[in-house]
Amino acid sequence: MTLPQILVPAAVAAAAATAFTAYAGLSFTSQIFGPTLVAPPQPNQLALTFDDGPNPTATPQLLEVLARHNVRATFFLIGDYVLSQPELTREIHAAGHIIGNHTMHHPWLARHSETTIREELLGCNRALEDTLGAPVKLFRPPHGARRPAVLRIARELGLATVQWNVMVGDWLPRSAENLLARLERGIAANQRHGRGSNVVLHDGSQHGLGAPRMPSVDAVAMLLKRLPPDTAFVTPPQWR
Question: Which of 117, 105, 102 is nearest to 149 (CA)?
Answer without folding.
Answer: 117
